[in-house]
Amino acid sequence: MRYIALALTLFAAPSWAQVQIDAPWIRATPPGAKVAAGYLIMRNQSASPERLVGGSSPVARKVETHVHIKDGDILRMREVKGYDIPAKGAFELKPGGAHLMLVDLKGPLKEGEKIPVLLKFERAGEVKVDFDVRPLASAQPGHKH
Questions:
Q1: Where residue 45 sits, what CATH number does that domain have?
Q2: CA proximity to 39, closest of 140, 131, 116, 112
Q3: From CA 85, how far away is CA 58, in angstroms rounded?
Q4: Domain, as residue range, for 131
Q5: Residue 99 falls within a domain, yes or no?
């Protein structure tokens, strides 16, 4: 029985070890806000490319993958189907760039809270991440949703 448990642990380890998540955070929201943006760094430990395809959280109706696109002098936000993470590489979600959008929040996000988000990857499967809620003032100048 111990050998079976050990074999299952070793077999499962490559899937959860493929993606490492660093510095996950979300900006606090004012009362009545319906969206929040989440940021992090995803590191792909695998020799194969990986792709973040979605997510979910109990604090929002849905979690979307978004990017900012410069259209002339205007920065526009667009939903995308996911983010590619190169083999043995990283992809950063940051203010003014790619980010997770938590849509239809069930309540305000308060500084100091931890927000659970389940990230869904093509190869690595589901990865649970707790996002730190930072002060609303963490915004970059001029960054708005």
A1: 2.60.40.1890
A2: 131
A3: 25
A4: 2-138
A5: yes
If one counts the domains in the chain, the total is 1
Q: Are 85 and 44 in contact (CB under 8 A)?
A: yes
Which region holds residue 17: left if phi is over 0, alpha if psi is between -120 and 50, else beta?
alpha
In 3D, which of 24, 48, 50 has the Cα closest to residue 124?
50
Please indicate, yes or no, if residue 143 is contained in any of the structural domains: no
Distance of CA 21 to the CA centre of its chain: 9
Cα separation values, 72 from 76, 94, 109, Å: 10, 21, 33
* Spans in the chain with pLDDT lower than 70: 1-17, 138-145
Kindly state the helix (H) or strand (E) to which residue 7 belongs, with its residue range. helix 2-17
Can you tell me the distance from the alpha carbon of 93 to that of 41, in angstroms, rounded to the nearest whole number?
Answer: 6
pLDDT digits (tens, 9 = 90+) for 41-72: 999 999 999 999 999 999 999 999 999 888 88
**Which amino acid, 112?**
G
